Amino acid sequence: MRTVGVEEELLLVDPESGEPQARAAAVLARAAREGAGQDVFEKELHDEQMEFATHPQSAMTDLGAEIVRCRRDAARHAEGLGGAVVALATSPLPVSPTITMNSRYRWMAREFGLPTQVQLVCGCHVHVSVESDEEGVAVLDRMRPWLSILRALSANSPFWQGRDSLYASYRSQVWDMWPMAGPTDVFGSAERYHRCVENLIATGVVRDEGMIYFDARLSQRYPTVEIRVADVCLHPDTAVLVAALARGLVETAAREWRAGVEPLGHSAGLLRLATWRAARSGMSENLVDPSTMRPRPAAEVIHALLDHVGEALADHGDADLAHAAVAELMGRGNGARVQREVMERTGSLREVVTACVRHTQA
Question: Which InterPro entries does the entry link to (predicted)?
């Protein structure tokens, strides 16, 4: 059974005002002093955020338990310094982020200017194990059209600098300011994938392989495919759903490759429009159907994904979990809907943040 790991980025905020706090270094130091977090928590681009990574898991129940534990540990370390953590993909309140000053981030700030300064955004990255680079690239080629649906399910960033962006996932719009981000064309082989990466680095625009910000890529550190389209999810159970569907997509694509099924030939340009639509609309209105590249009601597209990966979900024991989680998500709404409902009820972005602090550990 393929293992799955999740990386989540969290915002550090003041529990009273809801404003982001530049406290990552202090929180990580506190975790280290307590003898916890050395292999779990890491700093990120800005000092107002931190990241954790789960261990590889085979069972989704174990993955969900670890996500909840890591979120609670992060919250405990932040609370010890008078702060809080929240699983929001952007800050609803205005913020001037503080760049973490190591050599890598200084280089990025110098080369990319303002886009580096504003990238206080939090994502959820899912790692799914693969047997080889060749299998991994075959998977990348075949699951490309379906990734936009994961963005819609996870969308959790409607507010930006104190305003409603009119997007469900404005994080993705900020993230796409990077010139190396977004969907890819079909590679066809591991050799062509690696040649593409080498050519990107050779331009001098990209410093190293770690800055290849494709929507999905081969991990440079682990024998995995890394899927990077999702916002950090407000609720832990949504993160587990995204992970289960990601594993289903990887397994389904690998089976298609072994059966000689060719990838759909949609261009990267078409896929960019599909991911934009998912960011704009989330789970409401239409999404772009992965097979036809035509608009279709979001609920139908989401259930088409469940059908597409249905055999793999069943074989992993994830089918009941995935169907129940989708039903729950459609009823409750993704993070973007929850945030807007709090804003409509209270008229306060501060209340949006404080409510979401509670949801983060629910």
Answer: GCL_type2/YbdK_subfam (IPR050141), GCS2 (IPR006336), Gln_synth/guanido_kin_cat_dom (IPR014746), YbdK (IPR011793)
